[in-house]
Amino acid sequence: MRRTEDLEKIDMSNQLWQITGPPGTGKTTYLARQAEAAVERHGADAVVVTSLTKAAAAEAAGRGTGAGFVGTMHSLCYRACGDGRAVLDSPKGLRTWNEYAATHDRDAWQVTTGTDPDDPLADGPADTLGAELLEGMNLLRHQLVPADHWPESITAFAALWRTCLADANAIDFTGMIEAGLELESAPGNPRVLVGDECQDWSRLEGLVFRRWASVADSAVMAGDPDQAIYEWRGGDPRIFLDHPVPAAQRRVLPQSYRVPRAVHAEAQRIIRQIPDRLDVEYRPRDEEGEVRTLETERWQIPDAWLDELESRTGSVMLLASCGYLLTPALKELRSQGVPFHNPYRRKQGAWNPLGSPDDRRLTAARQLRAYLGHDDARGWTADALRAWMPLLRSSDVLVRGAKKWLEDLSGHPDARRFFRDPADWDRAQARREDWLLDRVATKEAERLRFPMACWRRGGIAALETEPRIVVGTIHSVKGGEADNVAVITALPGRWAEEPDAPHLCRLFYVAATRARESLTWLCGDRGGFQP
Q: In the predicted model, what is the mean pLDDT of the chain?
């Protein structure tokens, strides 16, 4: 690996630009335009766009601009390595590691859950000793701490981890970034390099970008130190702030098009609690907005405040520092049949129980839409039947082979012949919910419970339109916005000891600045963040 000191001495003053974009100032739009212009000037293969998550990189690249390489730094490095090795800290790879640890009498080092580098949610502490050691080892690697300065426990874990990597011919996520230091340039040997969300880079990631930028014609670093919320994985806002960029090549986007005056003032009050912080020009949009602090509302008792929040006009976002703090609210929303989702984390099933209207997966909501939603006098289409009929019990409702025969249907078929009792076909066409629930398997009835409750409350539109309510951790919605934002200020035990720590000020600053109209703090729990 190249010496860190040598890479840090590279002079990039002629080709490096820095863009600081506070919340809602159009940083993503600005970067998309830069990427589009670079593609027009140099061609798609000459442009690389990278960010912390796939979604953020795609947004920064711009829709349809055609940048040749777009993705996380992990994915770019992995593609550049080109060897297709297994990833040891992926869910599949961890099974290999757990078997390896067990055969070496290190059962305590097994890891039950890994970290998705594209969805690094801070939902709680490591759940096993192995997970804690893996997290600690990767943090030290990202911080470029020499191995002879590591704690003894992590040194021992790392030795076995490296042996497993070699024996399994595997790589890990941090190893992908380390491999980036050995590349002569970014993948594709680009002339233009765009890095977004740079305030969340670790020292290792910043060094890789520095290496790649040194051989490009120009490079753009974009971010906002006030929104640095990934310190737990090695992110360091000083990486962005201290990069040697000439003053003439630094630009601040000062005007927010999202945050109104009252919310802006609240957010500025929070972020200015951080000592030695660089204060940049940042202006609110020309609307007053609203900030409320509810002193008695607790996360464990959501029925006291959720109805009022749900009744607000416009979109609603409910946020918390950790996922478990949302559990009672999600249970209450489910019981009331109120649709909710998280469009920024589609793979998080607990936050997206209805799927999405254009989801190709056979979700329960899609199956229920197929059953309830037809208004064609000719009846269901073959595609609709293929969606909802598999819900039915094969044992006593459908004839043998019915589900297989469904595959050959077309048009608007008469499916009467597939039912053991032909009268069931007539009852089905009445689209009666009680008939359907009486004839589905137990597990299917459970899957249908929430979408059925949403349908009873809001009709078929509740299953066909995007929910108004967004739920998630603050980390998960970074980059998103809503008309009304409510934030649970309770903290997990590991953070409650320092409720005014700089990383928490930044975290709740990010939460506050998602709001276009109103911000509500739910402050009924002791030991929480004090806005």
A: 87
CA pair distance 476, 344, nearest whole angstrom: 7
Say how many C-beta atoms besides its own lie within 10 A of residue 521's C-beta.
24
Which value, to the nearest 10 degrees, does the dihedral of the CA atoms of residues 257, 260, 264, 266 take?
Answer: -160
Mean pLDDT for 97-111 is 95
CB 486 within 8 Å of CB 318: yes
**Nearest Cα to 385, choosing from 348, 360, 410?**
410
Query: Is residue 267 exposed (0-12), middle (13-18) or buried (19+ Cβ within 10 Å)?
Result: buried
Sign of CA dihedral 142, 144, 146, 149: negative
119-151 CB burial, b ≥16 within 10 A, e <16: bbbbbeebeebbbbbbbbbbbbbbeeeeeeebe
What is the pTM assigned to this prediction? 0.89
- Locate the DSSP E strands across 180-257: 192-195, 218-223, 250-252
For 317-378, where are the alpha helices, taking DSSP H only? Answer: 327-336, 364-372
Which residues are CB-neighbours of 361 under 8 A, at least 6 positions away? 355
Interval 321-360: pLDDT, tens:
988 899 999 999 999 999 999 998 888 889 999 987 667 7
Question: Phi-psi region for residue 188, left (φ > 0), alpha (ψ -120 to 50) or beta?
Answer: left
Query: Integer distance in angstroms from the first to the last C-alpha of the chain?
Result: 45
Query: Residue with structure tokens 């795609």?
Result: 58
Return the residue matching tokens 């002193």. Answer: 295
Tell me: the pLDDT tens digits for 231-273? 888 888 888 888 778 888 899 999 999 999 999 999 999 999 9
Rounded to the nearest angstrom, the gap between the alpha carbon of residue 342 and the centroid of all alpha carbons in its chain is 9
Amino acid letter, 400 = R
pLDDT of 118 over the 60 cut: no
**Residue recorded with tokens 């099933």:** 349
